Amino acid sequence: MSGQGIAILDASHSLFGFSDPNKDVHSDVNKLVLKPIPQFQEIVANAVRDAQASGSLALSKVATIEVGVICDAVGVKALTRVIHFRVLESIKS
User: Of 22, 47, 86, 93, whose CB is crowded by the most CB atoms within 10 A?
Assistant: First the structure.
């Protein structure tokens, strides 16, 4: 995966600029729409900061975005497990 960028995203957000489906869709359909992950931006920012502090993630190889993070293959290894477990903790509370 040399030279490739990988995105870790909250899938409830569209990358294609669609309007918020919860505003214009019938309530029965709303039950099928993915809901945003609570505090996802904060979870990602903390995971990136911790990985950079530990030396497992290079600052120049990662970019946080509003709905997640873009990184290289090394970054994915450093971030996926941490983000996954922190998301699980946030939705269990």
Answer: 47
pTM equals: 0.76
| Distance (Å, whole) CA 68 – CA 43 | 9
Give 44's contacts (C-beta < 8 A, 6+ positions apart): 8, 64, 68, 69, 79, 83
Nearest to 43 by CA among 69, 77, 63, 61: 69
For 53-75, how does the pLDDT look when each residue is reduced to its tens digit (9 = 90+)? 998 888 788 999 989 999 988 88
Look-up: residue for tokens 């869709």? 25
Question: Under a CB-based contact definition with an 8 Å cutoff, are residues 7 and 68 in contact?
Answer: yes
State the DSSP H helix or E strand holding residue 69, giving kind and residue range, or none if neither. Answer: strand 68-71
Could you tell me the sign of the dihedral formed by the alpha carbons of 81, 83, 88, 93, in that order? Answer: positive
Distance CA 16, CA 59 (A): 27
